[in-house]
Predict the structure.
Amino acid sequence: MFQQLKNIDTAFKYIRIFSFMSIGAFAVVTMYAIYKSHEHVLDIQRKIYVLANGKAIEAFQAEREDNIEVEARDHVKMFHHYFFTLVPDEKAIQASITKALYLADESAKKQYENLRENRYYSNIVSGNISQDIEMDSIEVNVLIEPHTFRYYGKQRIIRSTSTVTRSLITEGYLRTLHNRSDNNNHALLIERWRTLENKNIKIENR
């Protein structure tokens, strides 16, 4: 009889151990399933579909910190493109400069006003001169805020008789804004912008 009770007690112990192991395994599986479901939901939320030319293109959401250097370089590049790409048309010049001034503070506006007072833009229109710029490189330090940058490029001034190529080096700071806008897609603002070098490196007769 005692042996039978002992066997029953042993059986209960095995059943209890098995039950705890089953509950533990079930809890692990449940937690893993919840974790994977949450991860899957986050992956779906990161997916963005952009409609371009009638086609849905999949894009992915990312933290701003992951792309800040790329955005900073593009912001600096586009500012210089708008500020220095000019054609002999008053409305086109004004439109291009307006786009540039949305991307910078009063330091850029002061440079624009100085050029305007010196009749730089009037001379472009009256002389049928066009001007463009080619970027060589952009250095950006994203480890500090505001970010420092230095732009290296070549400016071409095309006249009816010659083409002048000038080196252009500028520098400044990039301050992060809270919100993006149609006129400032990167939510960055160029501050304390100044020109370090702008000199002739080549003159070609046409």
